[in-house]
């Protein structure tokens, strides 16, 4: 039922997500060795800052120059940054590289989502986004495990170079695909395309509802990525076990995307988002109360189940509401909200945590409040739709 281009895109996404996610378990300790332990919250926040700032440009370019050039640029940035991590000898250099690295996710996923929306019909959109998410989840699951194994048995430099190599492979796969942006819309790249002349080139008004829900429901992701390495260590998960949380989380996300990929196609986007938000809140409560590794990993599984339902549904809802000629900008709007949520979550988590394990429940509690706010908004939308019917 799916084209070769779809499966190539899934492979490219798997390699891309594996590339930068394999660094996550090791970066907090790496920054500590550089003398920047108090800046752990910036590891994710700086990455998402430039990812968010680049979205208006990547969305506009995806609608004018093409989907594939946007993806190629994102993978190229990931390749270059992975290669240069071993040469960061100061905290300032590390932070600068994290800023630059963020451009990779500012471009690659925007082009990917627009490409998939071009080739998949409406009635299969939720399922297709779920399958694409499966590829990303495999990369996210394998990446941290591979990264920790490479760092333990070889060196951090080996891990960084392997990350760069995976991004290069993702780039090679994209070179085999055919552009899906209609020829009538395509333009040659020029610097004037990087000028943002109106707010409509930054935000697509049609998709503000899914964008707001994305911001509120992705806040926990930034917070979790920031504190999980420390919480893992507190609970005795060290060495090769350091990446177990990510493995359990992405494994559960993988399973639910395979099993429930078409759920939102059948029952609607908002009802599925309400259910997934409740599961995420439950996961955060478990993580806040976790006093042992098994309970902690159970929270990871719940978190994976919730986000595994949440993410593809948000993508599909965004594409549903977008105009075909502004699809890249609509996807970029959703991603701006995603980066804002993750970045805020990471910054506030770093501030609340302050390297004190006793503060971990407060981090997860704050995340739960954000998701509850998103859940309240979804319930309001659901009631309005019921009244209109």
Task: Give a concise summary.
The protein is mainly α and 389 residues long.
Plain-language structure description:
This protein is mainly alpha-helical and 389 residues long. It is built from 14 helices and no strands. Helix 5 (91-119) packs antiparallel against helix 13. The longest helix is centred in the first third of the chain and has 29 residues, at 91-119. Residues 5-385 form the Major facilitator superfamily (MFS) profile domain. It is found in: Membrane. Its main location: membrane.
Tell me the Rg in angstroms.
20 Å
- N- to C-terminal distance: 34 Å
CATH superfamily grouping of the largest domain? MFS general substrate transporter like domains
Give the structural class. mainly alpha
Low-pLDDT residue spans: none
Largest sheet: none
Strand content: under 5%
Mean pLDDT rating: 86
Coarse shape: globular
What's the number of extended β-strand segments? 0
CATH topology of the largest domain: Growth Hormone, Chain: A
